[in-house]
């Protein structure tokens, strides 16, 4: 665990759980695990779930290229229209346009997200990816698995398992979006 540095995020005390080096190590390990499980990068594609899953998917693709020497295609998936709480919270503007510049049919697609919590985001992502075609297989890679599943969804690749309470919140910061890499645990 990183130094345990506390600071304020949105008015709550936050502790650094992973720093830049921890995140880099976790992503490198996940990249190796993806390659090992899929016996290389052949027929593989990465699809990041907006917002923070997209830069994480790009980082994994870059690591896979360094390790295997193969460019793996990367897509971006906006799940807004597939959320199961639209009736309750109302339709919100999408966080980004779905951009999958490759055919998903008969590919092994790895969905990438920053935090796995209830599983509802992943369920929406699976619905959205199936609208794009019929992948040979869909796998899931997450930087942090915090538990508390409401649906029977389990990640194939995890950077860090971090059991939390419902009163805690995990915030992932990425240099591409936030100017720094960190995983923070906020306590109410």
What sort of overall outline do the alpha carbons produce when their principal axes are compared?
globular
Order of helices and strands: EEHEHEHEHEEEHE
N-end to C-end Cα span: 21 Å
CATH domain class of the domain at 23-79 and 103-165: Alpha Beta
CATH architecture of the domain at 23-79 and 103-165: 3-Layer(aba) Sandwich
Low-confidence stretches: none
Supply Rg.
16 Å
| Range of strand content | 25-35%
Residue share in helix:
25-40%
Give a verbal description of the structure.
Helix 1 (20-37) crosses helix 2 (53-68). The two termini are 21 Å apart. The radius of gyration is 16 Å and the shape is globular. Helix content is 28%, strand content 30%. It has helices at 20-37, 53-68, 86-89, 120-130, 175-178; strands spanning 6-9, 12-18, 44-49, 74-77, 108-116, 137-145, 157-161, 168-173, 182-187. Strand 5, helix 4 and strand 6 form a beta-alpha-beta unit. The strands form two sheets. Strands 4-3-5-6-7 form a five-stranded parallel beta sheet. It is of the alpha/beta class and 188 residues long. The chain has a domain at 23-79 and 103-165: 3-Layer(aba) Sandwich (Rossmann fold), CATH 3.40.50.
